[in-house]
User: Which sequence fits this backbone?
């Protein structure tokens, strides 16, 4: 029985991940994400409507062009998402209903998807099926999917093993190998090493060109401790901004803010959204220690309260990439009663995503912050993506027959292909550099 793999999105770029796998007469779709910069651009230009036009999003390279799946459409049995990041689930509201099948993910991923749909005022026709990490589900006679838990920068991320009579298809997009994770357990290495006959590995390429092992999240935690507890902030306001879906990072921020004897206020819609999802499935209990300000009027009201005790709080805010409408930019623009003062601390627990729009937005924000004479602490961060040595480990553990690099432009995917070649694989024979819209039979 032939295995056919279709590269739908994420093969020409970082983002809008989507891959389809056909085994016999059954098809499964892996991830359906947005390309964030393009998505935000379209979002900023539109007016009104809650849900954007799928065709316009495809035209602007904001979501995958799934036209290539036209002939497979009626064979799709399941859409599976690896984790809750928007570049893996963000296109579901626009594309999923074309396929008459359920959507499967870990409970956290499904909960975040529900929140997104609620915000869009949309009810997806596809049934939503949560599956716990480290468990299996039989999709059809030809395919059984297994969720293998892995570390990344949002909870309940999994590697997907599609078991078939011809061997397993392993989909590792995204992951890193963190031996000292902060919120969850380590990767299920035992299961990964046990996998037999991995026919093909489809794997992310984001940091394939970095000759290193990606440091653990506990390193980011230590950096946060150092900057929160190791600098003198008496009498100063502290604002920290990080990725809203990074619950492990947020838990470290809460820990050290409490040690500083400050109250904690989360400000911004997306922070509220991911915290809500995590609390709903009981993997966190942040609101025990944290007050959340979600909407415009609520943010206004609560920041007014913070202003009165400005050195008794740590504000955790959205807007680390300088997004013009996010809370941090609006604070810097003096839109609230809470005003920045000389010597206040602004901690960026993130890196600037190297896309022109992000770099321009952050530069503009930093300029405003500089004018206020605040103290900035940048790059208090480690990535959730594996680098070259994590990728080498994954290949060594699973010994795949074929390797297909994904989640990256040609430069990044080529770096991963070069690594595979250096350990004995051969380009075109068993390492395949695909483009969006291309299919390959293995
Ligand atoms: Zn991710």
Assistant:
């Amino acid at each position: 029985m032939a295995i056919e793999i279709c590269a739908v999105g994420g093969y020409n770029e970082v983002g809008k991940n989507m891959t389809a796998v056909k085994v016999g007469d059954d098809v499964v779709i892996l991830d359906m994400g947005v390309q964030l910069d393009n998505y935000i651009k379209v979002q900023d230009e539109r007016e009104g409507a809650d849900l954007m036009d799928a065709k316009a999003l495809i035209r602007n390279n904001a979501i995958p062009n799934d036209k290539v799946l036209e002939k497979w459409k009626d064979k799709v049995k399941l859409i599976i998402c690896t984790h809750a990041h928007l570049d893996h689930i963000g296109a579901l509201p626009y594309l999923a209903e074309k396929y008459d099948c359920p959507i499967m993910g870990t409970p956290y991923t499904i909960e975040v998807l529900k929140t997104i749909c609620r915000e869009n005022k949309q009810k997806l026709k596809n049934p939503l099926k949560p599956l716990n990490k480290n468990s299996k589900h039989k999709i059809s006679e030809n395919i059984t999917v297994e969720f293998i838990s892995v570390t990344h920068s949002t909870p309940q991320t999994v590697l997907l093993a599609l078991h078939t009579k011809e061997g397993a298809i392993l989909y590792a997009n995204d992951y890193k190998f963190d031996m000292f994770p902060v919120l969850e357990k380590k990767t299920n290495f035992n299961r990964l090493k046990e996998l037999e006959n991995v026919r093909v590995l489809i794997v992310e390429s984001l940091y394939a060109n970095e000759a290193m092992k990606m440091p653990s999240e506990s390193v980011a935690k230590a950096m946060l401790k150092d900057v929160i507890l190791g600098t003198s902030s008496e009498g100063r306001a502290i604002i920290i901004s990080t990725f809203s879906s990074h619950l492990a990072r947020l838990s470290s921020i809460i820990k050290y803010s409490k040690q500083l004897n400050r109250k904690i206020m989360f400000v911004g819609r997306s922070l509220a959204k991911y915290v809500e999802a995590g609390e709903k499935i009981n993997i966190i209990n942040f609101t025990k220690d944290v007050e959340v300000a979600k909407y415009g009027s609520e943010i206004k009201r609560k920041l007014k309260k913070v202003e009165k005790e400005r050195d008794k709080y740590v504000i955790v805010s959205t807007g680390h990439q300088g997004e013009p409408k996010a809370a941090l930019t609006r604070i810097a623009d003096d839109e609230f009663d809470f005003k920045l003062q000389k010597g206040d601390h602004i901690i960026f627990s993130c890196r600037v995503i190297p896309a022109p729009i992000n770099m321009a937005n952050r530069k503009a924000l930093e300029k405003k912050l500089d004018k206020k004479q605040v103290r900035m602490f940048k790059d208090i961060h480690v990535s959730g993506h594996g680098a070259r040595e994590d990728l080498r480990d994954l290949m060594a553990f699973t010994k795949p027959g074929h390797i297909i690099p994904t989640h990256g432009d040609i430069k990044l995917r080529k770096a991963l292909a070069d690594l595979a070649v250096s350990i004995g694989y051969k380009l075109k024979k068993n390492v395949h550099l695909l483009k969006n819209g291309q299919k390959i039979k293995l």
Q: What stands out?
A: The chain has two domains: 3-213+384-441, 217-377.
